[in-house]
Amino acid sequence: MERIGVLTSGGDAPGMNAAIRAVVRTCVYYDITPYGIYQGYEGLIQNDIKKMDAGSVKHIIHQGGTILKSARSLDFKTEKGMKKAWDNIQKHRLDGLVVIGGDGTFTGAMEFGEKFGLPIVGIPGTIDNDIYGTDFTVGFDTAVNTVVEAVDKIRDTATSHNRLFFIEVMGRDAGFIAVYSGIAAGSEEVLIPEEDRGIEKLFESLARTSKRNKTSRLVIVAEGDNNGSVYDLEDKVKEEFGDRYETKVTILGHVQRGGRPSCADRVLASRLGVIAVEALKEGKKDIMVGIRNRDIHYTDFEKATKQNPKMDKELLRIADIISI
Ligand code: F6P
């Protein structure tokens, strides 16, 4: 390995910069020349590739977003796009790639690696935490903390007005952000796609809050939940309870993707960045690096993209108990 390229792809996540920094610095440490590829796979196609050094990544460990920019490239899914990307890789004589992103990123890496024989290693970077093969993805911890901070604020106003809030959080088809923030912010109910317990369960929880004279009611809804949108839920509750509750809806949206990465995300990203380069050096390819039970874990792209991480039922049980 003499030259390694690094890119970020898909939705940005806090901590991606810390991962880029770790990849670049590890390359320099091992006398490998790092190359930054801008705009994800689109940059490979457009030849937006620049040589980096240890100084190129100074003062970025604390910054959200990604200095390399990100994109969801449609061209990279085509034969022509992949061929152009390969030509540029050869032009820069890159011996391997580190790709930071989610399952779309790894699917692209898998196809590209298989087609041209280029060694590629992935780092899981997404706020959704929806990648098999790692306990946590880079960005999840920061996003959850952002949600908790926001919900704490919503609680202040909800309590002041005795209101019921439906708060939609991100996560695509996964409910990890919802479950973690629901527990940490003390919501009355959490609705997630992995475990549809039916609208009746929500009605029961709300009825219980009335008996206990609760002054605020917070319901956290994962965007992928199957009971409809937060607005549908609001309508259903109105149908069931009439005007018993004054309801409000908040969709947190992209605020969840930004901000300074938490300490946990910086450490995770730094660790995975080092391991990714070392994996390439050791001849590994077509794998994602992750941390499971504190240990380094390698997962084939095939498995990382096809399997979903299991929702921890124990967390749901805890959420139920403590929201009584
Ligand atoms: O995968 C990260 C994520 O923020 C999801 O939670 C969300 O569904 C999606 O990306 C939003 O994508 P975009 O930024 O392209 O609207």
Topology:
Blueprint: E1 3-8, H1 16-29, E2 33-37, H2 41-46, E3 49-51, H3 79-91, E4 96-101, H4 103-116, E5 120-124, H5 140-161, E6 163-169, H6 176-185, E7 189-191, H7 198-211, E8 217-222, H8 230-241, E9 246-251, H9 263-281, E10 287-292, E11 295-300, H10 301-306, H11 313-322
Helix pairs in contact: 1-9, 5-6, 6-11
Bound molecules: 6-O-phosphono-beta-D-fructofuranose.
Characterization of this structure:
This protein has 324 residues and is of the alpha/beta class. It has helices at 16-29, 41-46, 79-91, 103-116, 140-161, 176-185, 198-211, 230-241, 263-281, 301-306, 313-322; strands at residues 3-8, 33-37, 49-51, 96-101, 120-124, 163-169, 189-191, 217-222, 246-251, 287-292, 295-300. Helix 5 (140-161) crosses helix 6 (176-185) and helix 6 runs parallel beside helix 11. 6-O-phosphono-beta-D-fructofuranose is lined by residues 11, 102, 126-128, 170-172, 223, 257.
List keywords for this structure.
binds 6-O-phosphono-beta-D-fructofuranose; seven-stranded mixed beta sheet; 324 residues; elongated; alpha/beta
The Cα radius of gyration reads 22 Å
Task: Report the strand count.
Answer: 11
Instruction: Describe the oligomeric state of these chains in a short phrase.
Output: single chain
Strand content: 15-25%
Characterize the biggest β-sheet. 7 strands, mixed
**What order do the SSEs take from the amino end to the carboxyl end, as H and E?**
EHEHEHEHEHEHEHEHEHEEHH
How much helical structure, as a percent, in the residues?
40-55%
What topology, given as strand order, has the largest sheet? Answer: 3-2-1-4-5-10-11
From the spread of the alpha carbons, the general shape counts as elongated
Distance between the termini: 57 Å
- If helices are DSSP runs of H or I spanning 4 or more residues, what is the number of helices? 11
Instruction: Compute the average pLDDT.
Output: 96
What small molecules does this complex bind?
Answer: 6-O-phosphono-beta-D-fructofuranose
Given helix and strand content, the structural type is alpha/beta
Low-confidence stretches: none
